[in-house]
Amino acid sequence: MARRRRVASVRPDQSFKGRQFTAEVILWAVRWYLMFPVSYRDLELMLADRSVEIAHTTIFRWVQTYAREIEKRIRPHLRSSNGSWRVDETYVRVKGRWSYLYRAVDSRGQTIDFLLSAERDVEAAKCFFRKALGQPHTVNPRTITVDKNPAYPCAVEQMKEDGELWRRSRLRQCKYLNNIVEQDHRRVKRLVRPGLGFGSFHTARRTLAGYEAMAMIRKGQVRKVGGRDMRAQATFIAELF
Question: Domain residues of the chain, as ranges?
Fold first, then answer.
């Protein structure tokens, strides 16, 4: 007898109450938008090709509602990162202006955390480090590798004095050691490009959270879910709801 293929299914969840489409369709659309460099209009046509007639504006609302929720729900399932942090910031256009996306990965390229900020200063750096240290899958870093941004030494020193950061954490300002995180920025840039930027800070934060969540899954950071196993990833996301 042929083995029955496992199909992702979603239990009834209040998160989908009142929606015209099923949870499976909604999560399929959200997951594909956050994984691949497509526009909302492109995804509208892809769904139409599968006999699902839906406006691109509705897909936008789905992404805004569920992208951040997926990111929140996967956090407890992530493997622990190591103590070698590579920190950098890249630029994202929000409402016609450049904003700063702080990002950190460990020495294996696993995502530690991210933060969208309107400023690039000491307070923004401290806010990012606090957010990263508060995640369940991170540890207090033994080394923090950054570029020549002068805000990082000040932020690290102040956080050590306040007891927020391990006193033995070593800061390294060495650009070539940050190639890992700089290469990782390319994925975010590729996903943002079809949308030509974001219309608001709120929209950007929610969408970027979804991009980063799907990146963590595809990097194999979720326990018992392979980074290249698309079926297992779809099932995992369905079981979060």
Answer: 14-77+197-239, 84-189
Cα separation of 165 and 142, whole Å? 10
Mean pLDDT estimate for the chain:
91
> CA 160, CA 168: separation in Å to the nearest integer?
9
Degrees, nearest 5: CA angle 67-73-74: 95
Q: Render pLDDT for 133-183 as a digit per residue (tens, 0 to 9).
A: 999 999 999 999 999 999 999 999 999 999 999 999 999 998 788 889 999
Distance separating alpha carbons of residues 122 and 159, to the nearest angstrom: 11
Burial class (CB in 10 A: 0-12, 13-18, 19+), 71: buried
Q: What is the pTM of this model?
A: 0.90
Q: Which residue has the tokens 């460099």?
A: 37
The third-level CATH classification (topology) of the domain covering 84-189 is Nucleotidyltransferase; domain 5 (3.30.420)
- The answer to whether the beta carbons of residues 28 and 10 sit under 8 Å apart is no
